[in-house]
Amino acid sequence: MAGFKTHISFSTTLGIGYACGAYAFFDMPWTSCVIAGGLCSVSGMLPDLDSGSGRPIRESMGFAAAVIPMMCLEWFEAVDMPRELMIVSAVGLYLLIRFGLASAITKYTVHRGMFHSVPAAVLAALVVLLLSGGQHTRVDIRLFKAGGVLIGYVSHLMLDELWSLEWRYGLLRRKKSFGTAMKLWGKSLWGNLSVYGKLAAAAMLVGNDTTLLPPSTPARSTTRQSAAPDSGGPDSRPSGDMHREQVEPRQPMADHSPRNFR
Ligand SMILES: [Zn+2]
Question: Contact at 8 Å (CB) between 109 and 50?
């Protein structure tokens, strides 16, 4: 199998390309590019959390314990959490991830189990999509970060499958491990139920997350609502400056065609 250095080098290279491409061609903020590229890099070692080897667990759990509490800050603010409670919650999350989650993974997982699977890669991306912001974060930026996780995770699975092939006597042959990384389900019923159950729960949370709705929906309804009172007289007009700038230039034209209501 590919080693730790191979995985992290490959996913880091992909992360740099992903971040630079988004910055150059899609006008993503550079800070979001750094985070998405970093997530891609770290995700390249996530599947090997089940290996029992110390380094992937230590590095990725340390990164997750530091980053996840910060990603939750917007959610803390959304429920008007007091500042001191935010700090206590962030510290609690750090300890829970750094020690509780790390030891649970070591104890309850087997190498090349469902951590090495496509649904686990999608689950990791959905978790980041949910955690990476609330109503104040652009949806495309949240998708961009989740995409970084998906690319990094899948890059690991692909490398593992490539390393499961070998040349012998001039022929390309499969090793025993072939097909155990890029898979949809594994041999353990409990492992399959666990991953697909979590995936279904995450998908349901994403489906019910109103902060992921396209921004055009509320904006359009607001414009329509504000356009109707205009015809009733000046007193009924909303007082916002932006609204005046949009509406007043059109009044001399006396054009009531539908495009005024867009
Ligand atoms: Zn692996």
Answer: yes
Distance from Cα 82 to the centre of ligand 1, integer Å: 41
Q: By CB neighbour count within 10 A (0-12 exposed, 13-18 middle, 19+ buried), where does 98 fall? A: middle
- pLDDT tens across 116-146, in order? 899 999 999 999 999 887 667 788 899 999 9
Residues 148, 43 contacting (CB under 8 angstroms): yes
Phi and psi (nearest 5°) for 120? Answer: -65, -35
Domain locations along the chain: 4-212, 216-261
- The pLDDT assigned to 239 comes to 44
pLDDT tens-digit profile of 52-84? 666 767 777 787 888 888 878 877 887 888 888
| Spacing, Cα 47 to ligand 1 middle (Å) | 6
**CB < 8 Å & 24+ apart, contacts of 15-22:** 15/39, 15/40, 15/41, 15/44, 15/148, 15/151, 15/152, 18/147, 18/148, 18/151, 19/148, 22/144
Cα(23) to centroid of ligand 1, in Å? 30
pLDDT, position 261: 42
